[in-house]
């Protein structure tokens, strides 16, 4: 069994959906995970914002505009009148459901139900298309097996059991379609795996089904060595280890959801990043193997807050760090980077939701300083093999940029620097020029 996930751009129009149908039309058993059509989740986020503010007229206008876009897709996708009718009825059903929210109290629960509509629509429309093409497939509702627990972590046991039960209902079927991103939560409400979460769905499904491979089909030919939205002359990386890919995803390489590598790694299922617009391109293979020997890539994570706790009592005081970490644990706030000296500890978080409460508790340990608008620059590669040269090259490239924190040695494949967000573009550009060994294959 293979898992193939197609992102928003890959299913972003009638034409693209046809291409996806071509790509998946063979006898190999597979589960196809679809995102919402590109632009839809953003539109739903905006609609929800209007609904929160009770701006019902504006919300309705945006719902109508989105409905019109989908009507055009339906007109272009299906050839038979029967399927056009069926698909338009489906649209009416979903868009009436959205319009009904203007009548009700709007809370986070309703918002999540609104956000789920994109994936429900794309998968249903795609299933209709396969039916019209007489391609045998089954639409599996992700809400029947995808679940997060009270800590918003995937409930892996539940997912395994319920996915297996769903698949068992259809022995003899080789092609399953399901929604990325959406799930139920511990309270039985509709929820989601956060923006970009369809990659995470694919990886969780791949792990649960013990898949032979997880393919992430997107609009670029694999993981590039640097952020192609910011830096020119980036190139795809042929192979990455799970750990290297996980670091890049977590530290800002948007091609993968931050948590999406772990489930695949735990079950040792290789992940392949492929380009729907260029299906013959090799892409990136992520597996347990490490090629070693070089710096592979750079990524940047924005929206970071740095917190420094200065305390005279830290010197020689065992238990100090534990007390600090307990504060973050109480507020369920993960720490990304940490550096220490004899008198102070600096750390970073990317979720400032409970910052005020955290800072006020930390003040009981000493003086606390907070810096907002920070960016983590993460360099990924094999630092064991390159131990003597890599850091020199990195610091030389960044010599004109103030470094707020440096983290090295935490793992063998990551070196991170904290900088002001305003220096990000310069840092990524300088690193691109300074640290990669270009060869003709990359030119
Ligand atoms: P999808 O909708 O298919 O999930 P995304 O937009 O989430 O696609 O991810 C693909 C995009 O990620 C690319 O178009 C690219 O602009 C961006 N990206 C950021 N960093 C990287 C990187 N290091 N390598 C490849 N793509 C990257
Ligand atoms: N549709 C969701 C989003 O736009 C999930 C995804 O595309 O992965 O964030
Ligand atoms: Mg994505």
UniProtKB/TrEMBL annotation:
GO annotation (BP), single: lysine biosynthetic process via diaminopimelate
Residues that, per the record, bind substrate: 41, 119
Family, as annotated: Belongs to the aspartokinase family.
SUPFAM superfamilies, A to Z: ACT-like, Carbamate kinase-like
Binding residue positions for ATP: 5-8, 218-219, 229
Gene Ontology MF terms in the entry: aspartate kinase activity; ATP binding
Signal peptide region: none
Catalytic activity line of the entry: L-aspartate + ATP = 4-phospho-L-aspartate + ADP
Organism: Pontibacter arcticus
Top-level class of the enzyme under EC nomenclature: transferase
One matching Pfam family: AA_kinase
Protein name: Aspartokinase
């Amino acid at each position: 069994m293979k898992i193939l996930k197609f992102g928003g751009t890959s299913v972003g129009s009638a034409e693209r959906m046809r291409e996806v149908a071509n790509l998946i039309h063979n006898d190999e058993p597979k589960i196809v995970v679809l995102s919402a059509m590109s632009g839809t989740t953003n539109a739903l986020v905006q609609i929800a914002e209007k609904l929160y503010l009770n701006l019902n007229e504006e919300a309705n206008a945006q719902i109508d505009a989105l409905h019109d876009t989908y009507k055009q897709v339906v007109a272009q996708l299906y050839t038979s009148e029967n399927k056009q009718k069926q698909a338009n009825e489906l649209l009416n059903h979903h868009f009436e459901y959205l319009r009904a929210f203007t009548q009700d109290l709007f809370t986070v629960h309703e918002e999540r139900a609104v956000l789920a509509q994109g994936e429900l629509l794309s998968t249903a429309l795609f299933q209709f298309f396969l039916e019209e093409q007489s391609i045998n497939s089954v639409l599996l509702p992700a809400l029947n097996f995808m679940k997060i627990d009270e800590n918003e972590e995937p409930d892996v046991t539940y997912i395994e059991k319920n996915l297996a039960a769903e698949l068992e209902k259809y022995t003899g079927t080789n092609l399953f379609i399901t929604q990325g991103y959406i799930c139920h939560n511990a309270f039985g409400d509709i929820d989601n795996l956060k923006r970009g979460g369809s990659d995470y769905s694919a990886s969780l499904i791949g792990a649960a089904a013990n898949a032979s491979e997880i393919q992430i089909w997107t609009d670029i030919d694999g993981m590039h060595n640097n952020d192609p939205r910011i830096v020119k002359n980036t190139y795809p990386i042929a192979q990455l280890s799970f750990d290297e890919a996980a670091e890049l995803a977590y530290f800002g390489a948007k091609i993968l959801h931050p948590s999406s590598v772990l489930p695949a790694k735990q079950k040792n299922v290789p992940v392949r990043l492929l380009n729907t617009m260029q299906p013959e391109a090799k892409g990136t293979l992520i597996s347990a193997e490490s090629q070693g020997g070089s710096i592979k890539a750079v990524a940047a994570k924005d929206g970071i807050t740095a917190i420094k706790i200065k305390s005279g009592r830290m010197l020689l005081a065992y238990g100090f760090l534990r007390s600090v970490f307990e504060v973050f644990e109480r507020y369920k706030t993960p720490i990304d980077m940490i550096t220490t000296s004899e008198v102070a500890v600096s750390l970073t978080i990317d979720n400032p939701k409970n910052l005020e409460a955290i800072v006020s508790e930390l003040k009981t340990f000493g003086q606390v300083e907070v810096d907002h608008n920070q960016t983590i620059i993460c360099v990924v590669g094999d630092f064991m093999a390159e131990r003597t040269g890599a850091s020199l090259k990195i610091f030389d490239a960044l010599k004109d940029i103030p470094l707020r924190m440096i983290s090295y040695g935490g793992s063998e494949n990551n070196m991170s620097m904290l900088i002001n967000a305003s220096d990000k573009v310069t840092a990524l550009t300088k690193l691109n020029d300074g640290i990669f060994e270009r060869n003709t294959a990359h030119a």
